[in-house]
Amino acid sequence: MTIARVIVDVPAIGTDKEFDYAIPEKWREMIQPGMRVAVPFGPRIIQGFVIGLKDTTDVPRLKSISKPLDMTPVLNKELLRLGEWIAEQTLSFKITSFHAMLPAAMKAKYKKVIRKTDHMKLISLDDLFGGKQEIDWKEAEKRNLLPDLHKEINKGNAEVIYLVKDRAKTKKMKIVQPAVPHHELRVAADELPKNAVNQIKLLQYIHAAQEESFEAGDLAARAEVPRQTIAALVKKGILSETEEDVYRDPYKHKHFQRTTPLPLTAQQQEAIRPILETIETNIHQTFMLFGVTGSGKTEVYLQSIHEVIKKGEEAIVLVPEIALTPQMVERFKGRFGSDVAVLHSRLSIGEQYDEWRKIQKKEVKVVVGARSAVFAPFENLGIIIIDEEHETSYKQEETPRYHARDVAIERAKYHQCPVVLGSATPSLESFARAQKGVYQLLTLSKRMNEKQLPSVAIVDMREEMRSGNRSMFSKELFEKLKDRLAKREQTVLFLNRRGHSTFLMCRDCGFVMQCPHCDITLTFHRYSNEMKCHYCGFQTEAPQTCPDCASSHIRYFGTGTQKVEEELSKLLPEARVIRMDVDTTGRKGAHERLLDHFQAGRADILLGTQMIAKGLDFPNITLVGVLSADTMLHLPDFRAAEKTFQLLTQVSGRAGRHELSGEVVIQTYSPEHYSIQLAGKQDYDRFYRQEMAMRKLGSYPPFYYLALITVQHEDLMKVISVTEKISNYMKARISQDAILLGPVASPIPRINDRYRYQCLIKYKREPNLFPALKKVLEHYQTKLSKEGLSISIDVNPYMMI
Ligand code: ADP
Ligand code: ZN
Ligand code: ZN
Fold first, then answer.
1. Is 759 annotated as a binding residue?
2. Using CA atoms in the order 331, 334, 339, 342, what is the torsion angle rounded to 10 degrees?
3. Has UniProt tagged this entry with the keyword Glycosyltransferase (predicted)?
4. Closest residue (by CA) to atom 23 of ligand 1?
């Protein structure tokens, strides 16, 4: 075909459509949908995605594609279609959605080379490659070699590699191979001087080995010769040595104990049967696997995947970023070994790319990863599993604002395969769907080995205060801490970071230090003695006296993990404490190291934020303390109660998962709140009913869908007037059944010197809504983007502030 349909890389409303380009004769064989190409656009040459081919167009003066940027499609048909679907659902641009599906390494700024895939037999490629193992893309382009190289790539003789400069991370392997035909090795050995014992030995070894290539160190060891022997024979032209990238496998140094499927309990069997049926019969169905922590959900995942692999199909497992601990990875690597690729944001760009390549080259069957792993380019998907499905990190908070759950279901429909949503505390949205029969509910109500859930005590911190205890630990928690220290058992102390930080307040005048650019309180960082804004990055030295009244009675309030750590070292100097928060886990691998430490019993107390709430499964933890359960309750977010319930249930589940039974102490200033009461009883069903009643009362999800429009600009008056215009425009276009709230100032009214106003639309069925929202974007994008006005629309928002 002669014409390509191209989506160009200009993320704007006016260019969010396909453009036709002629395919020059010499590229006709090559260019396919899913490849990127360079095209002339206005005065520039830019990148674009080919989404389809055709033979006719009504564009009068057709421009031509300048050159291809890929040799094989980077997005297959399914993913191209998915990208368009995401763009529609999230009101974002197609080009933005396509980019979101690709690993960062494939952005244009990285250098590409074309590399031979084989070491021996491709003498025929020597002309093309000039005798080298690889050739620079730019050079190939200049010498007009791309069409020929493309043929070799299609035959599997060569591949395109993106070179990502991860400093000191690219690992090279030295590959040795004979430089002469195999039968001549004997002759060469005979011709060597008799005293070149090692060289003769090496050649004889290679001749006998019947292998085409060797890793240098390995070869030397096997032939029992020093490395220099190889070098000597390379110099004589009998052997050749080349360098090759090896996959930078971040889990390489870990040994994963192989595991085999466990005989399932009756409950597990009942839960897995419907899943296996859909796998067998290739039907799409979404399952809600509702099971308390430790009820054996993961084993159900593993055995479902096992069936999928047996059928020759592939599996995606999504876990929240912070739950992607070595422990979690170990369970999948342990069962499926090198069939597993792992994708998460702590990997370098190069490492992520390596894992992605394994998927694309069909070298793995299973991907375990965070949100974006839902885009793994598998072509025979047999199952998608989303563990901890209630986690808000499955929603991407930048464009395209997709939710991995929706994307997973869309992909599973295409592949006619099941989706399994697993959780001990399902999101209200998902559980409501399960209740209505949209999802099929599967329940695991018992913990393995009939282990009792830990006993939970709720401590009223106001009472503690009244009885004269001013410490951050209640008497009960402190006694239990001492008890565990004496018994040499481990404790997890959890501090809710959300809505909770250390701030500075003057005791005389009540002055609280705020960010000069945002309407938010500055956070005190003790080690650097600085005040920092967590929204815009502003920082300044902490003052000694009140900036307002000059009083010296300026104090730091609130509780940070650092402060808890200090308090612990005062009260329990003998306790060995590991603190885990953003400060101590910033460096790569730190997270894993700290956990290894704790697991090895080199600490008594693990103190941390959200990141310790998930996935920990250590036998010696018998006490969990929650220092302040209610900090999140008062955030301006309709999900505050749900999040509090989920977090407390999750944290409590860390205790007593094994032989020793566990206890949980929850400290709170609002002990009567139903989310705290019911988390203490681990009673999801009652929480669900109560919270559903609240949502109904407030017209919130799952009774209504939401669309949040946020307007930002430096000029407050402008923000207000634009938001008002948008509100009026929308009001006229939605039905009586929809509710429009606003315009009002956003919960954080100013960030980075830009004012923020919003309006929130609650709706059920509103066919005119999306077209109207699109019109709003279109209008303001073309008219006002130059003035620095920004408008964002978040469909089904999770960040309400
Ligand atoms: P969840 O994922 O629901 O938190 P897990 O799958 O981690 O639960 O199971 C909890 C513990 O029980 C794990 O140590 C797991 O190895 C074990 N387990 C799971 N299923 C079985 C089974 N059928 N027989 C024996 N032990 C099991
Ligand atoms: Zn700020
Ligand atoms: Zn003051």
1. no
2. 40
3. no
4. 264
Closest listed ligand to the CA of 447: 1
Within 6 Å (CB) of ligand 1, which residues are found? 262-265, 268, 291, 293-299, 448
- Here the tokens at position 185 are 């090795």
Is 417 one of the annotated binding-site residues?
Answer: no
Give Cα separations from 718 to 245, 724, 754 (angstroms): 55, 10, 11
Provide block-wise average pLDDT over 10 residues at a time, the chain (801 residues): 92 87 92 94 91 92 91 93 96 94 79 73 68 81 84 82 59 77 82 88 82 78 86 88 64 70 94 97 97 90 97 96 76 92 82 88 94 95 96 92 97 98 96 97 85 83 85 93 92 71 74 81 78 80 89 76 84 89 65 78 85 70 86 78 90 70 87 92 94 93 95 92 94 94 87 91 94 90 73 89 67
Name which residue sits closest to atom 18 of ligand 1, judged by CA.
Answer: 296
Q: To test ligand 1's pocket by mutation, which of 299, 446, 649 has the most ligand atoms within 8 angstroms of CB?
A: 299
Distance CA 572, CA 188 (A): 74
**For residue 551, which ligand has an atom nearest its CA?**
3
Is 509 marked within a binding site? yes
Nearest ligand to the CA of 515 is 2
| 518 is an annotated ligand-binding site residue | yes
- Residue to mutate (ligand 1; options 262, 265, 448, 616; most atoms within 8 A of CB): 448
Closest CA to 272 of 166, 422, 157: 422
Decide: 398 and 420 in contact? Cβ < 8 Å.
no
> In the prediction, which pLDDT does 499 show?
40
Residue 532 alpha carbon to ligand 2 centre in Å = 8
**d(CA 442, ligand 1 centre) in Å:** 16
Of 342, 412, 336, 415, nearest to 380 by C-alpha is 415
Q: Set out the domains of the chain in order of their start, with CATH numbers.
A: 3-102 (3.40.1440.60), 121-246 (no CATH), 266-444 (3.40.50.300), 455-498+560-694 (3.40.50.300), 705-795 (3.30.70.360)
Which residue type, as a one-letter code, is found at position 444?
L
Residue nearest to atom 15 of ligand 1 (CA): 296
Single-letter residue type at 237: G
Name every residue whose Cβ is closer than 8 Å to that of residue 24 and which is 6 or more positions away in sequence. 64, 65
> Is residue 682 within 8 Å of residue 456, measured between CB atoms?
yes
Q: Give the C-alpha distances (Å, rounded to integers) separating 1 from 31, 60, 330.
A: 9, 18, 48
Residues 224, 226, 231, 236: what is their CA dihedral angle, to the nearest 10 degrees? -60
222 alpha carbon, distance to own chain's centre: 42
- From ligand 3's centre to the CA of 467, what distance in Å? 30
CB 106 within 8 A of CB 161: no
Alpha-carbon distance of 510 to 520, in angstroms, equals: 16
DSSP 313-364: -EEEEE--GGG--HHHHHHHHHHHGGGEEEE-TTS-HHHHHHHHHHHHTT--
590: which residues sit within 8 A by CB, 6+ positions away? 584
Distance, CA of 89 to chain centre: 20
Query: What is the 714 CA–ligand 2 centroid distance (Å)?
Result: 14
